[in-house]
Design a protein that fits this description.
The chain has about 725 residues and is mostly helical. The protein has helices spanning about 1-35, 45-50, 55-60, 70-75, 80-90, 90-120, 155-190, 210-220, 235-260, 280-300, 320-325, 355-375, 380-390, 390-395, 400-405, 405-415, 415-425, 430-440, 445-470, 475-480, 485-495, 500-520, 520-530, 550-565, 570-595, 605-630, 635-640, 640-655, 665-680, 685-690, 715-720; strands at about 195-200, 225-235, 265-270, 280, 305-315, 335-340. The chain has 31 helices and six strands. Keywords: Calcium, Ion channel, Ion transport, Membrane, Transmembrane, Transmembrane helix, Transport.
């Protein structure tokens, strides 16, 4: 019966792989055809929209365009790392190097796992049954098939040590490579406003002085040689609400005049357009715009009295800004607080007006909501595990027993549906994490995305790995970690049993996810639905931003799966290697042709990759200690204990050796770059732009209503850009 159940699971897994291979082929074929469409056909991506082909070529029928081709793969692989760094930025290069690092790690792991560990596992019990593959279950390919106390387990022990050494070496190499590229990118880039600017908060209130006067007096006194200018932050919440209303009304009026929506000659100006006197539609909208503009001008004139004790202070040199950032400015450490300023387009304005108490309460609320979300997601995990276990499903729903006995139905339900349903539940998690992070008081969008990336990674590891691995109630899962001495034993017993689920998860979530990513299926369907119902989107077409905070946690989670199952169930390794290879090609294409970065973090996502890799290695070591204990090989278990200690020491060394370079630039680089800028002729123009770079868009004057025409773009939008 055990063999039959194993065969059923293996068949279900193969069914899942077959379905996803079919979907992958379909998506790749459709995308290949789309990539061969004429250039003035709108295809996703900033570089695909612009092309100079003639209208005749557009309308002419060409059979070749309907045939799939792999030419886009070649074009995606052509750019070098230097091309990516110069054109797409350091964040894009870091993202690509994460995939390169993963490919190198799991290429080595696949060779060792498939050609050494997997045969050892398979022949662990009876050599004479080597050719009885149809009678074998997936456990025959895992370490569970090796006899207790067998000397063959020393092969696994050696593989763990070798694998750890290889991963640490590759991680060290990537640290060294990216650190040098970060410095090279800094030297080759043009002067940027955020390099010369610091954010000052906690400005003390001086009687009879405005915040602006206090800031200028302080920095002219103590930074006289490098101080350039400052911009005080104002309370602009109400003004921004008026700006949003004016923006929407302007777009509506533009669409009415252009005829893109049905135009009524008259309407009633009362409630819901059903009451009041009849007025001309265009004239009514123009008068509302004029009133909004007057309200905005009045609000702007009152902003001088609504200053916030914070300001963006700009300096003439990067070194001067670095000194102001890293040295305590005042005697009272709670005043004149400084931090590096984000890029102007990266500034998140809402929380500048928040008090310290409000930020503290927001952080507490976010933490509670995050923990509650993790607990609530136990429900879909239980549902998924029920689908994966056919016997448990028959217990829950006995009336479905006759249907579940059908071979095809059982294979699809146990092999494909569990990971698919779970993936659908996970789709709503990234927006929630972004929302929670935006409530924590960060002053830049990049900080919000980095925080959301960490939250999403923690959520994925807990709910997708530990919650699936550890059976029982949520209270039992917590109790496991409250008794540290039992952690290796519990994980060693539970992790190998979920190998089939995670292989299916890699295929369903990984392969199909990448295929739908290249086709951008969700935006395509959403756009189709909006057009089907005749609902025009008020927003103009925008190039989608790079989704680093969503994709990096997924890549790191698959890396964790491969690391932990490296010696437990090596059968998962080829599936992961295919995922990373596909991801490398697809994401290079997406970064080159689809996404556009709105701001640059300077590669600050890399420390998250480092910490996740070290955690994955330590988790593998903990499981190995438990496995060797359960397999009655105490000496191997004891000799594995130094491995996590050595890994943590390696992590500390890398943090001190490399990670400091991802937080700030050294004085040597700053001074050399300042000297190079001093020889440039256009620095005066840059300083002129720097003075107004951090001015709140809401403070800038704008005009919508008077003299409006279809050719005039909203001036307010140009200020925001």
């Amino acid at each position: 019966e055990g063999h039959n159940f194993g065969v059923m699971i293996l068949s279900a897994l193969l069914t899942s792989v077959g379905i996803n291979l079919g979907l992958c082929f379909l998506f790749f074929t459709l995308y290949s055809i789309l990539r061969k469409q004429p250039g003035n056909v709108t295809v996703y991506g900033p570089r695909l929209i612009q092309d100079d082909r003639s209208q005749e070529e557009t309308n002419a029928f060409n059979l070749e365009r309907l045939l799939p081709t792999a030419g886009w793969v070649r074009r995606a692989l052509e750019p070098t790392n230097e091309d990516i760094l110069s054109n797409l930025g350091l964040d894009a290069l870091v993202f690509i190097r994460v995939l390169v690092f993963s490919i190198r790690v799991f290429s080595f792991a696949s060779v060792v796992g498939i050609f050494i560990l997997l045969p050892v596992n398979y022949m662990g019990t009876e050599f004479e049954e080597f050719f009885d593959l149809p009678k074998k279950s997936l456990d025959s390919f895992s370490i569970s098939n090796v006899n207790d106390g067998s000397n063959k387990l020393w092969i696994h022990f050696s593989a763990i040590y070798v694998f750890t050494a290889v991963v640490c070496y590759l991680l060290y190499y990537e640290h060294k490579y990216l650190s040098s590229k970060r410095i090279d990118h800094f030297y080759s880039s043009k002067p940027q406003p955020h390099e010369f600017t610091v954010l000052v908060s906690g400005v003390p209130v001086v009687p009879e002085n405005s915040i602006s006067e206090t800031v200028e007096s302080f920095f002219r006194e103590y930074h006289s040689s490098t101080y350039l200018s400052h911009v005080v932050v104002h309370r602009t919440d109400k003004l921004k609400a008026l700006m949003n209303d004016a923006e929407k009304l302007y777009k509506k009026l533009t669409r009415v005049k252009s005829g893109s929506i049905s135009r009524q000659k008259s309407m009633r100006d009362g409630f819901l357009g059903m009451f009041g006197k009849k007025v001309d539609v265009v004239d009514h909208y123009e008068k509302k715009l004029e009133k909004l503009e007057d309200d905005m001008r009045l609000k702007q004139s009152l902003l001088a009295g609504e200053e916030v004790p914070a300001a963006f202070v700009s300096f003439r040199t990067r070194h001067g800004a670095a000194i102001a950032t890293n040295i305590q400015q005042g005697i009272d450490p709670t005043q004149w607080l400084t931090e590096p300023a984000p890029e102007p387009q990266d500034v998140h304005w809402p929380f500048f007006t928040a008090s310290f108490v409000r930020r503290w309460i927001s952080n507490v609320v976010v933490f509670v909501a995050f923990v509650a979300l993790i607990i609530l997601y136990v429900i879909p995990v239980v549902l998924v595990q029920g689908l994966a276990n056919l016997h448990q499903l028959e217990t829950w729903f006995p009336f479905l027993k006759s249907i579940l006995n059908i071979k095809v139905v059982s294979q699809v339900i146990t092999g494909y549906l569990p990971s698919l349903i779970y993936q659908l539940f996970l789709m709503i998690v990234p927006p929630i994490m972004l929302l929670l992070s935006s409530m924590q008081g960060y002053i830049s969008h990049s900080q919000i995305e980095k925080s959301a990336c960490i939250k999403l990674l923690v959520f994925t590891i807990w709910n997708s790995f530990f919650a699936n691995v550890l059976s029982g109630s949520a209270l039992y899962r917590v109790n496991v970690f409250l008794e540290p001495k039992n952690i290796p034993r519990v994980l060693a017993a539970a992790v190998p049993a979920q190998a089939s689920f995670f292989i299916s998860y890699v295929v369903t979530s990984g392969w199909t996810g990448l295929s739908s990513e290249i086709f951008r299926l969700v935006p395509l369907i959403w756009n189709f639905v909006m057009k089907l119902f005749g609902k025009e989107d008020d927003k103009e077409f925008e190039v989608p931003p790079t989704p680093f905070c969503q994709e990096i946690p997924s890549i790191l989670f698959f890396g964790l799966l491969g690391t932990t199952y490296f010696f437990l169930s090596p059968l998962i390794l080829p599936f992961l290697l295919v995922y990373f290879c596909l991801g490398y090609v697809i994401y290079r294409n997406q970064l080159l042709n689809v996404y556009a970065a709105k701001y640059e973090t300077g590669g600050k996502f890399w420390p998250i990759v480092h910490n996740s890799t070290i955690f994955s290695l330590v988790l593998m070591h903990v499981i190995a200690i438990g496995i060797f204990g359960l397999k009655e090989l105490p000496l191997a278990s004891s000799l594995t204990i130094p491995l996590p200690i050595l890994t943590v020491l390696f992590s500390i060394y890398c943090q001190r050796r490399f990670l400091a370079n991802f937080k700030s630039y050294p004085t040597e680089c700053l001074v050399n770059k300042d000297k190079a800028d001093a020889r440039e002729q256009n620095m005066s123009e840059f300083y002129a732009k720097l003075v107004v770079a951090y001015r709140d868009p809401a403070v800038s004057a704008s005009r919508y209503a008077r003299g409006i025409s279809l050719e005039d773009p909203p001036l307010l939008r140009s200020n925001q850009g």
